[in-house]
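Hypothesis: this fold can be encoded by more than one sequence.
Test: take the structure tokens below, design a sequence, compare later.
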């Protein structure tokens, strides 16, 4: 009796060589696919280590060019900016979000001036700028006023577009904010000059802790479970993705990444004609770094494995804190 497998069961001939293994991928990671999240503070000379995010810092405006220049030289194509206002007066409507002196606006203008090839995305939310730490305006009873919040979010998005942002990315998860932002951009002449990337399926995850330390965006009361999606809610995620496509989003995003690969695959099916982004969030990054530090695996191998998962599920853009290392590692792969 032959011990050889039948033809239909013989697969290893397709991937016994490194090049043949590479050819199994539907898409391969390139530098163009990487977007680097950067925290910008209103302390001009700041270079502050974020202890829960290994290797990441808050940057002041005077230090930003020196930080970005070597990354751009290595092939960095895009960044997304998060404001960390430490010396601005916060209020219920998040007034510092679109103040002309807010760090995100100043950083956008600086980057557009000094790094004209770099695509600048601005996260649009109110949580870093409100005195209560929530992502929208609230009513007297403490609940979120969705209507007022949407109007305010659209105002902030327009301010970032006027500052020169190539892309605005609302992460607030208010109902109807994509259509409001899109219409505002169109009405003000930015319909063909500013991309709208929607945090469409953003889950109320336990993986945001390091980010909230970095951005100072912990809510003063309650949580965000009434507007971020429940982790078990595949159907809601599918509805949110479809809604944002219909409301005019140019790019769809899923956040976090690794626990939600099924949602990423769903998004690819639901929006086959849209670029698809994933945010590998702070907790995912910190978890991978901690595992490597403990000797569970090699950092580079695990980082690339996580990228393979995102791309296999359908992503074409990855927001990740691994971007600086990946720029180096991709050069090594070449």
């Amino acid at each position: 009796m032959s011990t050889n497998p039948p033809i239909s069961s013989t697969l290893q001939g397709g991937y016994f060589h490194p090049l043949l293994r590479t050819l199994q991928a539907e898409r391969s990671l390139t530098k163009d696919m990487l977007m680097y999240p950067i925290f910008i503070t209103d302390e001009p000379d700041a270079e502050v280590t974020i202890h829960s995010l290994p290797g990441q810092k808050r940057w002041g405006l005077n230090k930003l060019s020196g930080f970005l220049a070597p990354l751009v030289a290595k092939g960095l194509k895009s960044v997304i900016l998060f404001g960390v206002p430490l010396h601005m007066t916060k209020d219920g409507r998040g007034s510092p979000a679109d103040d002309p002196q807010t760090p995100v606006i100043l950083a956008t203008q600086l980057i557009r001036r000094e790094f004209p090839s770099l695509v600048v995305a601005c996260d649009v939310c109110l949580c870093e700028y409100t005195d209560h730490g929530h992502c929208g305006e609230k009513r007297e009873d403490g609940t979120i006023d969705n209507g007022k919040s949407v109007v305010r979010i659209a105002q902030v998005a327009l301010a970032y577009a006027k500052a020169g942002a190539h892309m605005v990315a609302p992460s607030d998860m208010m109902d109807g904010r994509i259509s409001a932002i899109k219409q505002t951009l169109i009405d003000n002449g930015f319909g063909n000059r500013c991309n709208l990337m929607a945090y469409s399926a953003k889950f109320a995850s336990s993986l945001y802790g390091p980010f909230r330390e970095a951005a100072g965006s912990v809510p003063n009361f309650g949580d965000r479970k009434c507007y971020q999606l429940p982790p078990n809610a595949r159907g809601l995620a599918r509805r949110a993705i479809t809604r944002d496509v219909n409301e005019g989003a140019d790019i769809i995003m899923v956040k976090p990444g690794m626990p939600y690969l099924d949602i990423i695959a769903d998004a690819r099916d639901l929006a086959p004609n849209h670029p698809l982004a994933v945010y590998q969030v702070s907790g995912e990054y910190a978890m991978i770094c901690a595992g490597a530090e403990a000797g569970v695996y090699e950092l580079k191998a695990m980082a690339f494995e996580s990228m393979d998962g995102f791309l296999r599920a359908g992503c074409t853009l990855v927001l990740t804190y691994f971007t600086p290392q990946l720029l180096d590692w991709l050069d090594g792969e070449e």
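The chain has a mean pLDDT of 91. The first strand starts at residue 34 and ends at 41.
Hypothesis status: open.
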